[in-house]
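Students often ask why inverse folding is considered easier than folding. One informal answer: many sequences map to the same fold, so there is more than one right answer. In these notes we will look at a single instance of the problem. The structure comes first.
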Protein backbone atom coordinates (compact mmCIF):
# COMPACT_ATOMS: atom_id res chain seq x y z
CA UNK A 1 0.00 0.00 0.00
CA UNK A 2 1.43 3.37 -1.05
CA UNK A 3 -0.01 6.79 -0.35
CA UNK A 4 0.97 9.70 -2.60
CA UNK A 5 1.41 13.08 -1.01
CA UNK A 6 3.63 16.08 -1.62
CA UNK A 7 5.69 16.80 -4.74
CA UNK A 8 9.30 15.73 -5.23
CA UNK A 9 11.88 18.53 -4.92
CA UNK A 10 13.80 16.99 -7.83
CA UNK A 11 11.22 16.18 -10.50
CA UNK A 12 7.92 17.52 -9.15
CA UNK A 13 6.17 14.14 -9.14
CA UNK A 14 4.24 12.69 -6.22
CA UNK A 15 5.94 11.38 -3.10
CA UNK A 16 5.16 7.84 -2.02
CA UNK A 17 4.99 6.73 1.61
CA UNK A 18 5.73 3.02 1.91
CA UNK A 19 4.59 0.78 4.72
CA UNK A 20 8.15 -0.43 5.34
CA UNK A 21 11.43 1.47 5.36
CA UNK A 22 14.24 0.79 2.93
CA UNK A 23 17.73 2.14 2.38
CA UNK A 24 17.98 5.12 0.02
CA UNK A 25 20.69 7.53 -1.06
CA UNK A 26 19.91 11.24 -0.76
CA UNK A 27 19.85 12.87 -4.21
CA UNK A 28 21.84 15.87 -2.93
CA UNK A 29 24.39 14.60 -0.38
CA UNK A 30 24.46 10.95 -1.54
CA UNK A 31 24.47 9.67 2.05
CA UNK A 32 22.61 6.45 2.80
CA UNK A 33 19.46 6.60 4.96
CA UNK A 34 16.62 4.32 6.00
CA UNK A 35 13.34 5.86 4.92
CA UNK A 36 9.84 5.00 3.79
CA UNK A 37 9.43 8.05 1.52
CA UNK A 38 10.59 8.64 -2.05
CA UNK A 39 8.99 9.97 -5.21
CA UNK A 40 7.53 7.73 -7.88
CA UNK A 41 10.82 8.16 -9.79
CA UNK A 42 12.76 6.95 -6.72
CA UNK A 43 14.24 10.33 -5.83
CA UNK A 44 14.94 10.68 -2.11
CA UNK A 45 15.99 13.85 -0.24
CA UNK A 46 17.13 13.54 3.38
CA UNK A 47 15.69 15.77 6.12
CA UNK A 48 18.86 17.84 6.40
CA UNK A 49 19.03 18.67 2.70
CA UNK A 50 15.26 19.18 2.52
CA UNK A 51 15.19 21.76 5.30
CA UNK A 52 18.64 23.41 5.35
CA UNK A 53 17.76 26.64 3.50
CA UNK A 54 14.39 26.82 5.23
CA UNK A 55 15.92 26.61 8.69
CA UNK A 56 18.43 29.33 7.82
CA UNK A 57 15.52 31.57 6.79
CA UNK A 58 13.62 30.73 10.01
CA UNK A 59 16.63 31.63 12.15
CA UNK A 60 17.13 34.95 10.34
CA UNK A 61 13.50 35.98 10.80
CA UNK A 62 13.55 35.00 14.47
CA UNK A 63 16.63 37.14 15.15
CA UNK A 64 15.15 40.19 13.39
CA UNK A 65 11.53 39.97 14.57
CA UNK A 66 10.12 42.35 17.18
CA UNK A 67 6.57 40.97 17.34
CA UNK A 68 5.14 39.33 20.45
CA UNK A 69 2.66 37.36 18.33
CA UNK A 70 3.95 33.82 17.66
CA UNK A 71 1.26 33.11 15.08
CA UNK A 72 2.23 36.20 13.12
CA UNK A 73 5.89 35.25 13.33
CA UNK A 74 5.18 31.66 12.26
CA UNK A 75 3.15 32.80 9.23
CA UNK A 76 5.97 35.11 8.19
CA UNK A 77 8.38 32.20 8.40
CA UNK A 78 6.00 29.93 6.47
CA UNK A 79 5.72 32.48 3.67
CA UNK A 80 9.45 32.35 3.03
CA UNK A 81 9.97 30.59 -0.33
CA UNK A 82 12.45 28.12 1.18
CA UNK A 83 9.86 26.80 3.67
CA UNK A 84 7.84 23.98 2.16
CA UNK A 85 4.17 23.23 2.75
CA UNK A 86 5.21 20.11 4.64
CA UNK A 87 8.60 19.14 5.96
CA UNK A 88 10.91 18.76 8.97
CA UNK A 89 11.73 22.49 8.99
CA UNK A 90 8.36 22.96 10.71
CA UNK A 91 9.76 21.09 13.70
CA UNK A 92 12.12 24.02 14.21
CA UNK A 93 9.72 26.74 13.05
CA UNK A 94 7.10 26.33 15.81
CA UNK A 95 9.62 26.46 18.64
CA UNK A 96 11.52 29.36 17.05
CA UNK A 97 8.34 31.43 16.61
CA UNK A 98 7.30 30.75 20.21
CA UNK A 99 10.73 31.55 21.64
CA UNK A 100 10.87 34.83 19.70
CA UNK A 101 7.39 35.93 20.76
CA UNK A 102 8.07 34.89 24.35
CA UNK A 103 11.20 37.03 24.47
CA UNK A 104 9.45 39.98 22.81
CA UNK A 105 6.58 39.69 25.31
CA UNK A 106 8.85 40.04 28.33
CA UNK A 107 9.78 36.41 28.89
CA UNK A 108 13.14 36.01 30.60
CA UNK A 109 15.79 34.46 28.36
CA UNK A 110 19.41 34.84 29.45
CA UNK A 111 20.90 34.37 25.96
CA UNK A 112 18.34 34.47 23.14
CA UNK A 113 20.74 33.45 20.37
CA UNK A 114 21.99 30.49 22.39
CA UNK A 115 18.42 29.39 23.15
CA UNK A 116 17.41 29.80 19.50
CA UNK A 117 20.34 27.65 18.44
CA UNK A 118 19.21 24.99 20.91
CA UNK A 119 15.71 25.08 19.40
CA UNK A 120 17.34 24.53 16.02
CA UNK A 121 19.52 21.65 17.21
CA UNK A 122 16.72 19.81 18.98
CA UNK A 123 14.05 20.48 16.37
CA UNK A 124 16.36 19.30 13.59
CA UNK A 125 16.59 15.91 15.29
CA UNK A 126 12.83 15.34 14.92
CA UNK A 127 12.37 13.35 11.68
CA UNK A 128 9.96 14.26 8.94
CA UNK A 129 6.78 12.16 8.80
CA UNK A 130 6.71 11.18 12.46
CA UNK A 131 3.08 12.28 12.77
CA UNK A 132 2.07 9.18 10.83
CA UNK A 133 4.93 6.86 11.75
CA UNK A 134 5.36 7.59 15.46
CA UNK A 135 2.00 9.02 16.46
CA UNK A 136 3.72 12.17 17.69
CA UNK A 137 3.52 15.29 15.51
CA UNK A 138 6.76 17.25 15.19
CA UNK A 139 4.95 20.58 15.59
CA UNK A 140 3.72 19.50 19.02
CA UNK A 141 7.18 18.24 19.93
CA UNK A 142 8.56 21.64 18.89
CA UNK A 143 6.27 23.38 21.36
CA UNK A 144 7.58 21.04 24.07
CA UNK A 145 11.15 21.80 22.98
CA UNK A 146 10.40 25.50 23.42
CA UNK A 147 9.28 24.91 27.02
CA UNK A 148 12.26 22.66 27.73
CA UNK A 149 14.65 25.39 26.52
CA UNK A 150 13.15 28.25 28.53
CA UNK A 151 13.05 26.08 31.69
CA UNK A 152 16.53 24.52 31.21
CA UNK A 153 14.98 21.07 31.34
CA UNK A 154 17.11 17.92 31.32
CA UNK A 155 16.18 14.23 31.65
CA UNK A 156 16.99 14.57 35.38
CA UNK A 157 14.77 17.62 35.93
CA UNK A 158 11.63 17.42 38.03
CA UNK A 159 9.31 20.35 37.34
CA UNK A 160 10.87 21.49 34.01
CA UNK A 161 10.54 17.99 32.57
CA UNK A 162 6.90 17.88 33.64
CA UNK A 163 6.21 21.30 32.12
CA UNK A 164 7.70 20.45 28.73
CA UNK A 165 5.98 17.06 28.63
CA UNK A 166 2.63 18.62 29.52
CA UNK A 167 3.08 21.18 26.75
CA UNK A 168 3.67 18.50 24.14
CA UNK A 169 0.71 16.48 25.41
CA UNK A 170 -1.64 19.46 25.22
CA UNK A 171 -0.60 20.20 21.63
CA UNK A 172 -0.89 16.53 20.64
CA UNK A 173 -4.34 16.25 22.17
CA UNK A 174 -5.58 19.22 20.15
CA UNK A 175 -4.04 17.84 16.96
CA UNK A 176 -5.54 14.42 17.67
CA UNK A 177 -9.03 15.89 18.06
CA UNK A 178 -9.00 16.86 14.39
CA UNK A 179 -7.12 13.88 12.99
CA UNK A 180 -5.48 13.50 9.61
CA UNK A 181 -4.26 13.59 7.01
CA UNK A 182 -1.35 15.64 8.23
CA UNK A 183 -0.91 19.34 7.60
CA UNK A 184 2.24 20.98 8.94
CA UNK A 185 0.56 24.38 8.88
CA UNK A 186 -2.62 23.35 10.76
CA UNK A 187 -0.67 21.38 13.35
CA UNK A 188 1.77 24.24 13.77
CA UNK A 189 -1.03 26.73 14.37
CA UNK A 190 -2.74 24.41 16.86
CA UNK A 191 0.51 23.85 18.76
CA UNK A 192 1.18 27.59 18.93
CA UNK A 193 -2.31 28.38 20.21
CA UNK A 194 -1.98 25.76 22.95
CA UNK A 195 1.46 27.08 23.87
CA UNK A 196 0.22 30.67 24.20
CA UNK A 197 -2.45 29.55 26.68
CA UNK A 198 0.00 27.36 28.58
CA UNK A 199 2.68 30.05 28.88
CA UNK A 200 0.21 32.56 30.27
CA UNK A 201 -1.11 30.00 32.74
CA UNK A 202 2.27 28.72 33.95
CA UNK A 203 4.66 31.65 33.48
CA UNK A 204 2.27 34.60 33.59
CA UNK A 205 3.62 35.86 30.26
CA UNK A 206 0.93 36.99 27.83
CA UNK A 207 1.82 36.70 24.15
CA UNK A 208 -0.33 38.39 21.52
CA UNK A 209 -2.45 36.42 19.08
CA UNK A 210 -4.09 37.10 15.74
CA UNK A 211 -7.87 37.00 16.17
CA UNK A 212 -9.65 34.33 14.12
CA UNK A 213 -6.67 33.65 11.86
CA UNK A 214 -7.61 32.01 8.55
CA UNK A 215 -5.12 29.85 6.69
CA UNK A 216 -3.34 31.31 3.70
CA UNK A 217 -1.73 28.04 2.62
CA UNK A 218 -4.63 25.61 2.00
CA UNK A 219 -4.32 25.88 -1.78
CA UNK A 220 -0.83 24.34 -1.53
CA UNK A 221 -2.06 21.29 0.36
CA UNK A 222 -3.59 18.52 -1.76
CA UNK A 223 -4.81 16.81 1.41
CA UNK A 224 -6.44 19.91 2.96
CA UNK A 225 -9.38 18.86 5.13
CA UNK A 226 -11.23 22.10 4.34
CA UNK A 227 -14.16 22.71 6.70
CA UNK A 228 -12.82 20.22 9.26
CA UNK A 229 -9.92 22.61 9.85
CA UNK A 230 -10.54 25.49 12.30
CA UNK A 231 -8.36 27.76 10.16
CA UNK A 232 -10.05 27.12 6.82
CA UNK A 233 -12.08 29.79 5.10
CA UNK A 234 -12.23 30.56 1.38
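Output (designed amino acids):
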Amino acid sequence: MVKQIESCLICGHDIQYLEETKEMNCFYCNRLFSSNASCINNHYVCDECHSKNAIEAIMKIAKEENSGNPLEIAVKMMKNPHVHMHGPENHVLVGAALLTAYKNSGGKIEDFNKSLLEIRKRGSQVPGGICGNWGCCGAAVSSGIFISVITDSTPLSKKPLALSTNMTSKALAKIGEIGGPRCCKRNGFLSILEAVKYVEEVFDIKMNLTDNYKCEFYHKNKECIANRCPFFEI
